[in-house]
Amino acid sequence: MSKPNLKPTSNPTLQNPNPNPSSSSSSIVPPRRDQPHVSRAPDLAVPLLPLLSLARPPPTFPSSPPSSTNLLHFPIAAPPPPPAHAHVLALGFAPSVVVSGALLTAYAKCRLLGHARKVFDEMPVRDVLAWTALVHGYSTSGDLVSACKLFDQMPSRNTISWTALIGGLNRNGEPYEALDMFRKMMYQCVRPDQFTFSSTLCACAATASLTQGKQIHGYVLRSKFNPNSIVLSSLVDMYSKCGDLLRARWVFELTHYSKRDTVLWNTIISALGHHGHGKEAIKLFDEMVKCGRKPDANTFVVLLTSCSHSGLVEEGVRFFESMAKIHGVVRQEDHYVCLVDLLGRNGRFKEAMEWLAKEPCRSSARARNALLGACRVHGNVELGKQVAEQLIELEPNSSAKYVLLSNMYAEDGNWEHVEKLRGLMEESQVRKERASSWI
């Protein structure tokens, strides 16, 4: 990555011939993390190196890696150390627990786990934050074996450590293991926090563990824990996915208006739509808007999905058209996929195909998968074959369309075409994918 072309007057600190080392360095990085030019942080530290070598290490370097982390601009394939890291090593600051911990966290969040592990192994003293950062890095990247092994080696663990592993297990499709880890955490009398509850409730939802979800909810109430909107949304989602819509609505209704953020509104609208109560979902959306809560892109995803599941085609199309005009929400691929699904589920294939011919649907495999599923529901084999052929061009190695089309042929009694499809899968070395879901 080339260095930005900084003008001499871009930073008043650099114009001062004799700045104070500590105040200058700390003023460069932290206040700019939320600015578009935050990527300059490591490079802005360079002019201060001569001064830093004569002064006590200021907080410049611990601040630089996190700003790099937010940008995720580190190259993925075996990169050289980033500028801030190189300067740290050159000045001999690496042994510092604070500096090394900041570097480790930056590498872990950027999924440069080889670099993160190297920093970790070279640390003379490792605090719980360093251990946790690496556990989180492994679990985020999907390396659960390394994450669990490192977690077992930790000399001490806190709430954040347990939550990092529980969340990692849940995100990587191991909800039962996540629940088991939560039980162990409780046995060791470690107090959960908001993120622990949220991750564990998501695991309950994924496994339809209503009993355990109720127990966690009971613990929240008995301990007089003040749940934030994330935990409340997780409770609504858990009850909904466990089939208890009444309790999901109860949690929402008992939540004060001040805590009903957009995420919570989206969750209850999604819950109603999932259970086929599309009209009630629309009523809640109208109430949400009247309360002054601005809908976001996810709001319209769950709203369109609710309309699709309840056969409310005209209402769904109306919401799709009102997104940008009334609510100022930019349409994304997810919304077009929902629209195609809405039209396809209700047999309006001509309109669905018209949308597929437009951008961004023209190159969207997800939109075609949605229509292919609708073709199967309605037994439209001819259109299904046409859509499947388009999908094969877009995603030649994905098995989803082969399986859907094969099922359509089987349901139509066309076993000859089923055998041909299986032969084509073997010839193309396409394997059936493992079942998965996202929460």
TrEMBL record:
<dbReference type="InterPro" id="IPR011990">
    <property type="entry name" value="TPR-like_helical_dom_sf"/>
</dbReference>
<keyword id="KW-0809">Transit peptide</keyword>
<dbReference type="GO" id="GO:0099402">
    <property type="term" value="P:plant organ development"/>
</dbReference>
<dbReference type="Pfam" id="PF13041">
    <property type="entry name" value="PPR_2"/>
</dbReference>
<dbReference type="GO" id="GO:0009451">
    <property type="term" value="P:RNA modification"/>
</dbReference>
<dbReference type="Pfam" id="PF01535">
    <property type="entry name" value="PPR"/>
</dbReference>
<feature type="compositionally biased region" description="Low complexity">
    <location>
        <begin position="8"/>
        <end position="30"/>
    </location>
</feature>
<keyword id="KW-0677">Repeat</keyword>
<feature type="repeat" description="PPR">
    <location>
        <begin position="158"/>
        <end position="192"/>
    </location>
</feature>
<dbReference type="Pfam" id="PF20431">
    <property type="entry name" value="E_motif"/>
</dbReference>
<dbReference type="InterPro" id="IPR002885">
    <property type="entry name" value="PPR_rpt"/>
</dbReference>
<dbReference type="InterPro" id="IPR046960">
    <property type="entry name" value="PPR_At4g14850-like_plant"/>
</dbReference>
<feature type="repeat" description="PPR">
    <location>
        <begin position="261"/>
        <end position="295"/>
    </location>
</feature>
<dbReference type="GO" id="GO:0003723">
    <property type="term" value="F:RNA binding"/>
</dbReference>
<dbReference type="InterPro" id="IPR046848">
    <property type="entry name" value="E_motif"/>
</dbReference>
<feature type="repeat" description="PPR">
    <location>
        <begin position="127"/>
        <end position="157"/>
    </location>
</feature>
<protein>
    <submittedName>
        <fullName>Pentatricopeptide repeat-containing protein At2g21090-like</fullName>
    </submittedName>
</protein>
<feature type="region of interest" description="Disordered">
    <location>
        <begin position="1"/>
        <end position="41"/>
    </location>
</feature>
